Amino acid sequence: MVEIRKPIPVTEAIRQVMEHVTHLGTEIVPLENAYGRILAAPIIAKHDVPPFDRSPYDGFAIRAIDSAGASGENRMPFHVIGEIGAGLLGDKPIGEKEAYRIMTGAQIPKNADAVVMFEQTVENENGFTLRKPFDAGENISVQGEDCKEGELLIEAGTLIHPGTIALLATFGYAFVEVAITPVVGILSTGTELLNVDDELVPGKIRNSNGPMIRAQLDRMDISYKSYGMAADELDMCTFVVEKALAETDMLITTGGVSVGDYDYLPAIYERLGAKILFNKVAMRPGSVTTVAELNGKLLFGLSGNPSACFTGFELFTRPAILGMMGGTNPYMPRMKAILGEDFKKPNPFTRFVRASWEFTPTGVIAVPAGFNKSSAVSSIARGNCIIVLPSGTRGFSTGDEVDILLLGSELGVSEWTL
Ligand SMILES: Nc1nc2c(c(=O)[nH]1)N[C@H]1C(S)=C(S)[C@@H](COP(=O)(O)OP(=O)(O)OC[C@H]3O[C@@H](n4cnc5c(N)ncnc54)[C@H](O)[C@@H]3O)O[C@H]1N2
Ligand code: MOO
Ligand SMILES: [Mg+2]
Questions:
Q1: What is the pTM of this model?
Q2: Which of 26, 81, 257, 389 is deepest in the core (most CB within 10 A)?
């Protein structure tokens, strides 16, 4: 008798996966290796930024009071007492009607409280004249206007991007505390599988899931250990799964999770004593996605069908990996889009449609990326997003508003909502 599985809602499945995520701790890396990692400690301003009042322009530093009454008819003369380039200091305090020539980024000299751009002056042998009064503080970049010493700037759990690197460098972080990145094992199961460079022979297909998962991990900058392909043989598959689990922090298998005679993953989980979190999700594709846990490590039994495998990774495995690193935005960003083509299939389960989105003059349009069965490989290649069609809906028409999940974005969101 075939086992009847009870599907759980997608949101519940994601919640269960995230509940079983374990952190691997933190490590210190040089700043030049920190891009793409996840911050393990918050960035707190170690000093004010800028650390001193400075000039935002190339021009003259003056006392604002000396410009009072200046006009086109009454140009105010100033005497230049020296020059300050960025990185240098003016050693004399400026006196009445005196000015320093000052360059962008240079510290404002003593007594000066305004900067006049070169373009606002007429220069002469002695200095310059100007034709308008300046307020105290005008054209001064004030110490601490960007960051105040002690201010919490970026939370732990944030992905480090080029802007984060700039901030870390500003505060002198030559080394950064980041989350340890998991090593993920990948095993493609299926007696029908050939290597990429094999000739097709009757009944066989090339393994596309293995290379696809490797690329999905590469896109996240996560390292992996590939265990290649295993034929549908219980003992051999159990041996490889056990070995892979011992050598990695998480294992992704593809294929063999449904109810077929040679779908051995359920038996392998049982043999190993792994706890099955779920083995059926109310979604299409990927309803057979199975997740188990053993000794604190997650085993993702992704479907063999390519579109289901891809979707299972993006929905469950990717947030779990980010969660293992304490990532605070593990879920794909979501956007509203206008459906660019009819999609008339009813949706008994939540449907995730591989699609392609673009900005148009009338807004964001998302168009399904062609043949959209669970077994499809072409629509994964053509898609750049996933349209989410809620369960219980009866098909959608061109012009309907839909939600889309963005693929390959370094941005993410903190909550999963459906
Ligand atoms: N009686 C039932 N049959 C099936 C059910 C069901 O509920 N009852 N579920 C169907 C659904 S939904 C899916 S999805 C598939 C899932 O199958 P498995 O995850 O067990 O995967 P396999 O049987 O091993 O393979 C399915 C399909 O994918 C191809 N495949 C497998 N590995 C790869 C790979 N690495 N690269 C490319 N393609 C691969 C494989 O040849 C099969 O065509 O089960 C349904 N059946
Ligand atoms: O597990 Mo399947 O992908 O719903 O067709
Ligand atoms: Mg199967």
A1: 0.93
A2: 257
